[in-house]
Design brief:
The protein is mainly alpha-helical and about 150 residues long. The protein folds into 2 domains: about 1-70, no CATH class; about 75-148. The chain is about 45% helix and about 10% strand. The protein is built from 2 helices and 4 strands. The strands form 2 sheets. Strands 1-2 form a two-stranded antiparallel ribbon. It has a two-stranded antiparallel ribbon with strand order 3-4. A hairpin with a 5-residue loop joins strand 3 (about 45-50) and strand 4. The chain is flat and about 85 Å long. It comes from Spodoptera litura. One of its GO terms (cellular component) is nucleoplasm. GO terms for molecular function: sequence-specific DNA binding; zinc ion binding.
Length: about 150
């Protein structure tokens, strides 16, 4: 899942709706750089562009509130290493944390790299189809005699 941060609208009325929807402190107001994660919007608030990009609709207002009382999802820094022994020194424990964190980072980068290779393959196939289409169009123009 890819998360997109959407900036608050410039329109004052819609901006106020967003500020109320995110339910922050009483005196808080958004700034020019304030943004809301796509996780706070419903699926119906998004649409796909012709090029396949996922965009937030103009009428969308954050609807899914993540309560401050909710337990946050574990991040890399909060994930416990698998094998801490009672005999491990503080240095060994820190190194195990570091190794585990780096393994997670390496795995995420490997996934990203595979996605990039997949995208590259798709683009090459698309390029070949376009080349074939151009050749076909040129051939048809020559046959029809309208090619200069």
């Amino acid at each position: 899942m890819i998360f997109i941060n959407s900036r608050f609208p410039r329109d004052k009325e819609r901006r106020k709706q967003w500020e109320l929807a995110v339910n922050r402190e009483d005196e808080w107001s958004s700034t020019a750089s304030s943004a809301v994660c796509s996780e706070h919007f419903e699926t119906k608030d998004f649409y796909l562009t012709e090029s396949g990009l996922r965009r937030l609709s103009v009428e969308a207002v954050p609807a899914i509130n993540i309560s401050p009382c909710q337990e946050p999802e574990p991040t890399i820094s909060r994930v416990q290493p698998v094998d801490i022994q009672p005999t491990d020194t503080e240095e060994v424990i820190q190194l195990k944390y570091k190794v585990h964190r780096l393994e997670i980072i390496a795995e995420n980068r490997k996934k990203r790299l595979n996605l990039m290779w997949q995208g590259k393959r798709r683009l090459r196939k698309k390029l070949e189809r376009m080349k074939c289409l151009v050749k076909h169009l040129i051939k048809n123009k020559k046959e029809n005699g309208s090619f200069s």
